[in-house]
Design brief:
Length: about 250
């Protein structure tokens, strides 16, 4: 199913209410006619300090881990091939038992992405992709990928965590150089009971910043289309499982 997604609008456009469209990261917190509202939160870092002073705005423990990653020889770059990035993120999803990402979805965002990676020697430790919107003066985390779950060495897992922190700081510096004002961590789940989500919240909190509430508005035609598509998938799944359950295998 093909639909349009708009980022960082003040509010959804009423003229698009009958289309398959979604408005993400809107400032409006109230309902809008003919749209389904989903309240969301994210963590924002202001990039106004000079690049050399940005590090000083982070809490002490965060600064230490960033500086330690630098001492350990971790280097960051935005010289990343898109196919390499997509394959790295696909493996990351596999490590978390997530469905494989749709390449077309990533290609639709490609021209707006700043892709970066942290390396130690020839080894890629983690990769990020950010949506860059110069008009909104904002960069929003699109994906953050690492393969630390494939590591049995706790020291290596910890180093990848520090490299990931350094890469976020490096990304912020690149955005500040582009005159962007705001770094967006791409979402936050307050009061979550999911241990994995709590860990993500704590990671984002460790940089400081402010918690901001925003809204995503989904047009009613898109909302209904998604529900019908979900229902269709469930029906097909039940039909397949039902067929298998009804098959008897006779011994030879």
């Amino acid at each position: 199913m093909t639909y349009q997604r708009h980022y960082f609008a003040d509010r959804p456009h009423s003229s698009a209410a009958l289309a398959l469209v979604e408005f993400s990261c809107c400032r409006l917190l109230e309902r809008a006619p003919l749209f389904r509202l989903r309240a969301e939160y994210t963590k924002l870092i202001e990039l106004r300090p000079a690049a050399g002073q940005l590090l000083d705005t982070f809490p002490k423990q965060c600064r230490y881990k960033i500086q330690r990653a630098e001492r350990e020889g971790v280097a960051c770059t935005d010289d990343v091939d898109f196919s390499d990035y997509f394959e790295f993120h696909r493996k990351f999803c596999q490590s978390k038992n997530r469905p494989a990402p749709a390449r077309d979805f990533f290609l639709a965002h490609r021209e707006h992405l700043l892709i970066s990676k942290a390396m130690r020697g020839a080894d890629t430790l983690c990769m990020h992709a950010h949506l860059i919107d110069s008009q909104a003066s904002r960069g929003r985390l699109f994906t953050s990928s690492s393969l630390f779950r494939q590591q049995n060495d706790n020291a290596m897992r910890a180093m990848i965590g520090r490299a990931n922190r350094l890469l976020h700081y490096w990304d912020m510096q690149q955005m500040a150089a582009l005159a962007l004002r705001t770094y967006d961590f791409g979402g936050y789940a307050p009061q979550s009971g999911d241990p994995a989500q709590v860990g993500l919240n704590e990671f984002k909190d460790s940089f400081g910043g402010i918690l901001a509430q925003e809204s995503t508005f989904v047009s009613l035609p898109l909302e209904m289309s998604r529900r019908l598509l979900s229902l269709s998938r469930r029906v097909r799944t039940r039909a397949i499982h039902g067929d298998k359950a009804g098959v008897e295998v006779q011994p030879k």
